[in-house]
Amino acid sequence: MEGIAIMTSGGDAAGMNPAIKAAADHAMHLGYEPFLVDDGLRGLIDDKIEKVSDHDVSDIIHRGGTILRSSRSKRFFEYEHRLAAYENLKKRGIEKLVVIGGDGSFRALNQFYADFQVPFAGIPATIDNDIPGTDYCLGVDTALNMIRQSVDSIRDTANSFRRAFVVETMGRHCGYLAMASAVTSGAEICMVPELEYDLDSIGERLRVKYQGHPNFLIAIVAEGCNMSDYLNRWIGDTLKMDSRLTILGHIQRGGSPTVRDRLMASKFAVGAVESLHRGETCNIMIYKSGHFGTLPIHKVADSQLEMDPALVAMCKKLCK
Ligand code: F6P
Hints:
The longest helix is centred in the middle third of the chain and has 22 residues, at about 140-160. The radius of gyration is 22 Å and the shape is elongated. By secondary structure, the chain is of the alpha/beta class. It folds into 2 domains: about 5-140 and about 255-305, Rossmann fold (3-Layer(aba) Sandwich), CATH 3.40.50; about 140-255, Rossmann fold. It contains 11 helices and 11 strands. The protein has a 7-stranded mixed sheet, sandwiched between helices. α4 (about 105-115) links the parallel β4 and β5 (about 120-125). 6-O-phosphono-beta-D-fructofuranose (F6P) binds near residues 128, 171, 172 and 223. 6-O-phosphono-beta-D-fructofuranose binds near residues 11, 127, 128 and 171.
């Protein structure tokens, strides 16, 4: 029986476990022998690969993170370690890989394909939502709901004390989490790396809004701006409001996957196994303009990240 190995790689994201389950189930359904790789790329090199049964993946769909653990392996950049990984797959009859992770992991697997012709299918998973070619990556909806819940709680204190709160969201260099959160939590200010901001006009807009009686204020700032601390002090100095900074941090990465993440995970995973079954070699699963599809890794690597123009337009009003 031909083997398909399933692995997670890069930062964990809610939705990885449902994707592992759906990929294993569908691989079995099509007559493959599924394997799980523990510890991501590091586990491929270090031979942490086990056969998987239906039972192994039967109680994971509701769990955040990844039961397979993950890693960012520098050793995989070196040929001798990739060769060790290939031999570990070969001795078990594993001829295809499903990798759930970010574009860095996909590029690593593309190099692996160039070396040893082991086909892979990639499932985009990162709360940053920064993989070009797809509008959605697993983990984003769960992270957004976690941020929404946190900002709703913070709003209670903000309102009770007429305070300002600067809430910093993750996303590395991408402002998607901050933009979607700013709109869905009714923030007064949004700062993201993709959009220019103008503190003078923000100040003027809010002075007009408050008419000398500042109410509470919520500002959502993407970590990639490096502006949270400065904005917190600026609000105190310029708007004369009592302001607090909350850095949400890794709370955004964890938690039980939402229905949307479970559903997207299942669809991406079935698509990934189907892609390998059709004999495709280096495809990434995508969700673009409301449709599921696949994109070869070289197109993902060459694409620019496109932000939802309607979301961008709404956020532009919050950064000036
Ligand atoms: O890529 C996911 C992410 O959570 C980013 O949003 C964040 O900048 C980074 O990972 C944090 O990395 P680490 O968990 O290594 O601190």
